[in-house]
Amino acid sequence: MANKEIYLDNSATTKPTKNVVRAMLKCLEDDYGNPSSLHAMGLAAEKILKNSRETVARALNCSAQEIVFTSGGTEANNLAIMGVASLNKNKNSRLVTSTIEHPSVLNVFNGLEQMGAKVCYLPVDQRGVVDLHSLKEVIDKDTSLVSIMYVNNEIGTIQPIEEIGRIIKQISPNTLFHVDGIQAFGKLDIDLKNMPYVDLFSISAHKIHGPKGVGALYIKKGTKLSGMMMGGGQEFDLRPGTENMPGIAGFAQAIVDMALLKEKHPNKLYMLKERLTKGILDTIDDCRLNGPSVKEGAPHIVNISFNDIRGEVLVHALEKYGVFVSTGAACSSRRARISHVLRAIGLIDSFAIGAIRFSFSLFNEMEEIDYTINIVKQIVEQLRKFIRR
Ligand SMILES: Cc1ncc(COP(=O)(O)O)c(C=O)c1O
């Protein structure tokens, strides 16, 4: 097994499926026309674009006209927040988010704050769930936007999006609600027709076995926001620039592939997560599950701390045995600092620095989980012997 690659870092990114690579290659080799061109090659590309948009829309249960392709989840989040904020620059306007958002949301709000905007960061409880009392207190008619993630990328907390949406719209019907749905898409059932309180919803292809560098923003019909770039008018003038056709075709193919696989294995992710969590917590001393319980959290993410052991030491030790995991968010895990999410849920430092995120995909197998439990146990015991000598 050690020669095999056991990839348990699927929240950072996923391996594109073979069909995705084929769809992308076809766009590069054969259907390389510009969808804006008038000739037959342009029309062929336009058809791929149209079909891909419809595939994304079907997956979210919305209309194709409500989907804008972007260069990924980060851009979708930026477009949603900046796009609304730039139309609401008046003195009283307020923006609301939570303390555990992804940097592609938090840093946009930080930037807006530096430019004079009023931003409120909602606290979360020990499971990472947004405090609804604080939400009720801060929303008023001057709140232009609330942005809350659906699933947290480090600890897997699922926010009560429906309840949050209802609270917002009951107090202030004109306040827009943006949801970073990047870790939820493909894992939870999402039906935007039945979520009328959600105005904006971000998704990304590379978290669902699609390519990197492509994502989409759902913009509910009638929602007003301004684009961040100026150019040739593509994507309803909200995201100009010649479309990333191989990426978009790969994104649509990933949606099709993953829907089929999920139908075949509806509970597999939860089973993998349950087995790994139980295996580790039952056999290794002095470790703890961070964030929500196994059942409450998202099916594909589990975050466990090992007291006395640094997360990055464990990541590198595991890699020698072919097991790939993460210390937390991929983009912050190279920096030696404690995760803002683990801080926000109140984890003490000695546990926070020993946190590891395991994240699963439908391509993982139970044997990989059993192998991982054993290797983690061996490594943790060796490291502790060494530290406590
Ligand atoms: C919750 C969340 N939001 C946003 C992003 C950014 O998406 P992308 O990598 O497509 O820019 C990520 C990726 O790690 C994420 O997990």
Give me the CATH fold name of the largest domain.
Aspartate Aminotransferase, domain 2
User: DSSP helix count?
Assistant: 12
Strand order of the largest sheet: 2-8-7-6-5-3-4
Hetero compounds: pyridoxal-5'-phosphate
Specify the CATH class of the largest domain. Alpha Beta
What share of the residues does DSSP label as strand, in percent?
5-15%
Dominant shape? globular
What is the count of structural domains? 2
Q: Which percent bin holds the helix content?
A: 25-40%
**What would CATH call the architecture of the largest domain?**
3-Layer(aba) Sandwich
Biggest sheet record: 7 strands, mixed
Topology, number of strands: 12
Q: Which blocks of ≥5 consecutive residues have pLDDT under 50?
A: 329-334
CATH superfamily descriptor of the largest domain: Type I PLP-dependent aspartate aminotransferase-like (Major domain)
What structural category characterises the helix and strand content? alpha/beta
- The overall pLDDT, averaged over residues, is 95
Distance between the termini: 31 Å
**What Rg is obtained from the alpha carbons, in whole angstroms?**
21 Å
Q: Order of helices and strands, N to C?
A: EHHEHEHEHEHEEEHHEEHEHHEH
